[in-house]
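Revision sheet: C-alpha cells.
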Amino acid sequence: MIARANPEGHPETSLIDVRQLSKEYIQQRPFTNQRFVVRALAEANLTIRHGATIGLLGESGAGKSTFVRCLALIEKPTTGEIWFEGENVANLCASGVSRLRQHVQVIFQDAASALNPRLTAAAIVMEPLEIQGKGTKAQRRDRCVELLERVGLPAACECRKPLEFSGGQRQRLALARALALEPKLLIFDEALSHLDLASQESMLELLGRFKDERNLTYLHVSHDLEMLRGVADEIAVMHDGTIVEHKPTAEIFAHPEHSYTRDLLSAMPPLEIICRERFARESL
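Predicted:
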C-alpha cells in the first residue's frame, strides 16, 4: 500500500522529495570470488518543485545516473524515501511502478541503445500508449503523428527505424516517446552531451517551448556547467553519492559554499573564452 500522508516538512509545492536515498551493489572480486559492497548513493536528499528546471552536476562516478535510475524506479533503492506528490513510491509493486512511469520519463544519453532498433519510429512512440492501454489504435496513431511533428520530425519518417536517423533526430524521437504519456517530470541523463552545438541549442529551444506549454518539470543531469547556467533554475551538486549543495543557479555560481562545488567552478573556462569558442564554431 502507498503511504499517502505527506512526510513532516514536505513542501506543498514539491513534485518530488527524495529523502536519505541510498543504493548499494554487491560485487564479486575475480579469482577469489570475495564479495564486497559498492555504495553508489549515500543518503542523498533532493526536493524538486513543480515546474522547476533542476540541474544535477557532478563528475563521472559521483552517482548521478544511479540517482536518476532510482528516481524513475528503474532500480530499487536500498534505503530511503521517494515522495511523489505526497506518496512514498520507493517500494511500489510492479503495477505501481507502471503507474508512476506515466508521470516520470527518462531520456538517456545514447538514444541509439535506448530505442529498439527493430521498431519503426511510429511503433516506438505508440508503444508506451499501448502498454498503458491509452486510446484506440486510431487515436494512438493520431497521437504519434502529432508528437513526431511537434518534435520536428515529419510524419513521413514514421516508417524509418532508429539507425536511419541522425543522432539529433534520435533524441527527438526519444523525446516524442517520452511525451506520449504526458508526464509531469522529464529526466535528461546527459541527453544533450553527444549533440553538436546547433542540435543542442535546437533541442533546448524545443524543450523550452514544451515546458511553457505543459508546465513540465525538468531534471538535467550534465557536466556542462555553461548549459546548466543557461537553463536551470536551481543546481544540485552531487559528490560521492550525496547532494552536497543545492541552491538557485545564480547563487551557486556567485557564492558556492562546498569545496567540491568551488573546485568544479574553478575548472570551468572563463566566460569570454566560452563565448569566443562558441562564436568560432558557429562561424564554420
